[in-house]
Amino acid sequence: MRFVRTPLLPLAALVLLSGCSGAADPTPATGPAASAHAAEDSPVSDGPSPKPTPVDIRSLTSAELQHQWWSWAGSTPTERNPVVDPDGRHCGEGQHEGIWLLAGTFGGTVTRTCAVPVGTPVLFPVVTMYGKSSDCLTFMNDARGSAVLDGTALSVEELGSTQIRADPMPDSPIRSHRDFNDSWACGLWVRLDELTPGRHEIVLRGSSGTFSTGVDYRLTATEDPTAVSRAQADRTGPPSV
User: Is the pTM higher than 0.70?
Assistant: First the structure.
């Protein structure tokens, strides 16, 4: 892959509030009255949080789609960036609600084991780049690629030279390749509505000129992708340096 990023989701500020109390009662109340009082003070759960509304990925324009992906790709530092991820331990980094993004590589082929949320559309490039508009024209002339889900070929969409604006974080591997601002992006892309619960395999291969990329994705579609990701991290251990 060759790169770009835009302003991602705003960084949420966490405000921690702590209360103060008076001196502790040396003879705390006990018995039914105290239990009833404690029950009244206990927070009432409204049940599980509602699932985020899936993004209508079919309606995304070329600029919106490529802006969103390049922004995500540049939103994490190199040591846990999904594009340089060696085995899938960083698949969940920086994901947005309502859509799940998968990454290729900056060259070469890897195998990644990841979890994705059930009912969420999936978007990924087969091969992509960012740079000058003229770079994209040359790149797309030679762009080739395929994506296969569980043995069935997926529709690959050609998105030509599109201007986008991104702002990757300083430690992102994206920034080291080229200035992201006011750049152009292009590539071959796949929009996948959602995965049914269970295990799946996506095999993607892409190339343009001397550049080639590929990933064998072993995916588990689940209601709790964070649990599967934690289990994967436990199996693989910390990243090697």
Answer: yes
DSSP letter, residue 192: E
Residue 205 confidence (pLDDT): 98
Strands (E) in 63-210, as ranges, are 100-101, 108-117, 122-131, 144-149, 152-153, 157-164, 183-192, 198-208
Which tens digit of pLDDT belongs to each residue from 25-61?
433 443 444 434 444 444 444 544 556 687 899 999 9
Average pLDDT for residues 55-79, to the nearest whole number? 92
Contact in structure between 100 and 200 (CB atoms under 8 Å): no
Residue 226 phi/psi, 5-degree rounding, is -65, -35
From CA 179, how far away is CA 168, in angstroms rounded?
A: 9
Compute CA distances 69 → 14, 23, 38, 50, whole Å: 26, 54, 48, 25
> Coil, strand, or helix at residue 139?
helix
The helix/strand/coil state of 216 is strand
